[in-house]
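Hey all, sorry for the wall of text incoming. These are the two entities for the joint prediction.
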Amino acid sequence: MATTVHEPPKIEPGSLPSHGSGNGGWRNLVPADGDLRQVRNSSPPPASTGIWVGLAAITMTFAAFTSALIVRQGGAPDWQHITLPPVLYLNTLVIIASSVTLEISRRRIAAFMGGLRDASQKASPARWLYITLFLGLLFVAGQTLAWLQLTSQGIKLSTNINYSFFYVLTVAHALHVFGGLGGLARVIVKLKKAALKRSTLDATSRYWHFMGALWVYLLLLLWIKL
Amino acid sequence: MHDLSAPAVHHGAPTGFIRKHVFSTDHKVIGKQYYALALVAVFVGMVLSWIMRIHLGWGSYAIPGLHFLSKAGAPGDVMTPEYYLQLMTMHGTIMVFFVLTTAPFAAFGNFFLPIQVGAEDMPFPHFNMMSFWVAFVAFVVLIASFFAPDGPTLGGWTQYAPLSAVGAVAGPGQGLGVVLWAASIGIFCISQLLGSLNFITTTLDMRCKGMSLLRLPLSAWAWFITSIMALTAFAVLMPACILLILDHVAGTSFFVSSNEVINGQLLPHSGGSTLLWQHLFWFFGHPEVYIAIIPGMGIVSHVLITNMRRPLLSHRVMIYAMGALAVLSYMVYGHHMFVSGMNPFSSLAFSFPTLIITIPATVVVLIWLGSLYGSKLRINSASLFALGFISMFISGGVSGFFLAQPSIDIMLHATYFVVGHFHLVMAVAAMFGIFAGTYFWFPKMTGRMMNDTLGKLHFWLTFVGAYCIFMPFHYLGIAGNVRRYQAFTDDYLIPLIPVHKFITVAAVTTGLVQFIFLYNLIHSRFWGAPAPDNPWEGTSLEWSTATPPPHNNFGDKMPVVYHDPYEYNVEGASADYIMQTSPEQLTNPHDEK
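and here's what came out:
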């Protein structure tokens, strides 16, 4: 067995990365033959990639639910049309509005971070975040109202398969929305402490917009299929 | 407000015991925790297999103390038919999820992926910590089902509906046992999703200066490809588990059809699709096979190259082949359902990609064999287990050609032929990959060398033992021996009992041999010879840092990479091997670009 102790790595002086998050970002396929000049000194913040990875997993989960719905519907003798609680349509407007307010907020904070604060904007950049958080909570409250309306009519998860899918999909979505609300709360806290990273803000807003788009998709699915 | 280039990961070294060793965010500690979990799980799984094998060889033999596990399941220490199935289910579930997924992927991947890409840590260390502890909770929930009133589920690791979805009426363990099983697996899915999120982001965003994607070692590539599969596959299994639990606790009818009568009882469910479960499960299940084996392919390539002192015939084709296996693994899942009653044309559609997937698998094997041909391989425990991996993968893979064809599969389905096939190609091969990785990386993980003589003894006994156990399975299958039978009373099965006795002796012996490994592992951990930083004269980044690596992996200076991962025996170079961090200019490198 060989026991040679190799010399410690030689580090090129003056070209050390400034931090530990790496520099070989995924778009960075350049270096060969020791030529490091073309290598960018900072990789994309992990949150900006991580959020897409996370959204891919959520997409797969809801794709699985969707395919389950389609397979279960095929040839099922017990498939009965149901009427969706009308409050869902109002909730759809609320979650779309929350995406708009979040986008306004994101742009203002981005400008604020970049030192481009418009003198006419006297309000705190967090104001629109509070509005988004409120709209998010309103959406969850609206969904809860829809469930309560159904249960008060004696409609449970097991009443028929259409309602089973209705409850499963809406609850699964609402749980993911809770994650988004947590993210928004975290952004507000970090903003207050002046410790907010741009990548955190962007990742949170992508997640929230995705929740809005996912809800519109689910509503269409429920409306068409159920 | 904020500097966009601020460090993503900068958690200082913890000092307290709890944060250092228990709830640690250090990827190296988490890797070791996963390894420990796999070690405990494999011991439980192995003991279960011993109990089953003894019962299969000598059905009336009382196994002392078995009634402590379950009074109802093993009255007088002799197990009931149902209890045999319950132990079999737990054996499969524990081995597939908590050993074959955790050890090669989560354990070694956690420890070495960030180091091999040149990062301080994973980008989301708290998610990483949660990943392990969530997996731990999943294991506890699964083990808890042993202590449920009527024991764990007996439905097999595939939990086919409708029997898995109707509750206690389907047999012992089919009530609470299934709920605990589905909860455990659902929780495990969350764990692997958190882990995959970190693995993917680490590979894409955390590479050090100069580390382009093609400069990643093959082990890092394997973990990267596996993490993409784990992300997409476990994200599908989790909703399936949720729907299964709802069929139990909420009375829904996702998987149970109308007018189902089980054990004389008419069930209240209506309209469910039993095939739906199989579709959801196998969409996860077949990629899971590759989640278990692809990390082994990466580890074995890495180990062999270091010991051959030359790169593979093609680094790039190896990566493409592993990628092709990953993509195709999603298109072949229906080959598990040839006899499920689905449309026969679907069988054809799934048979074709199943035969196609043998092409990248064959390419992988040919690259190994071609690279080995004429090489002066350094023989040590790690390289032997790497060779053993290739042997098992070929032996188990060849039987896959037969099973891929629906017409032959109709005869061989649910026989011991299938059991032999998947144990060799997936389970034993993956175990050999785990052993190769352990002997190879143990010095870096612990700072001490393992005993090579004991390692070689461990290899030869395990290699012979594994073939003695699993080769006869093929014979049994061709002879018509159906799997999941706990006793062989039919005329045509009685002559096969001596074969079962032989397998049992081989299984118990091979299992006992593993205690040589366990002894070597524990003894070397505390009393092994101190390991140098680069004992195998490797080139990748894990050999550039101290042994064991410091908290932030590379000390004060982050590495800079100048070379492809496997520059061995380069013409005109100053040494037999050029490390990735060496600034030496090579006039004639092994060029993969």
